[in-house]
Amino acid sequence: MRFVPFVALMLVAGCTSGGESTPSVSPSATASASASTSTDLPEAEAPGGNLASAGKDADWDTFVLPCEDKTREPTVQQVVTADVTGDGIADALVARACDSSTVEVFDGSSPAQRPWRIDQPLLSSPTAELRRPWVTGLEVTSGEIIIKADGHAVGADSKACRKDRLVFAFKLVGTDFTQLRLENNPTGSCLPAG
């Protein structure tokens, strides 16, 4: 059995980075597959491996949402794989940044060449956007998504430096993410720019 890099799979599958949007589906739309390591990439001759087989090695900047400012390219800050849907398959959480950060969650049972985004990106709510969060850490603990970020105080000048250390917690409830809590720890001084 011959394995090829994920980029080759994308070329064979005809994927492009031309701003295609990834459909959002319910986490109940899962296939029965077992999780595998990130080194077990799908074969180019038979594309169809699931996302869990590509994991952190996928070309994530191809799949995340584009920046609102079309002159900018999104930057992938961090990728974490963990079971968020509860189906026993590792899902992919991708922190991506433009002017601020969001976290997109992709269903691990979806096809590696066209992963399914679960619900809307985390940190994209109007309340979170006011803080202009910049992700500094991402983890999953007991099904909870914990996002650490530097951000602004609500009402702060958007051009001012970030001075608040934020911790967001989310959980998938049904097909939607629910924000469980937000901790705000003001530092009083400028945090390093992202």
From TrEMBL:
<feature type="compositionally biased region" description="Low complexity">
    <location>
        <begin position="21"/>
        <end position="39"/>
    </location>
</feature>
<feature type="region of interest" description="Disordered">
    <location>
        <begin position="18"/>
        <end position="55"/>
    </location>
</feature>
<protein>
    <recommendedName>
        <fullName>LppP/LprE lipoprotein</fullName>
    </recommendedName>
</protein>
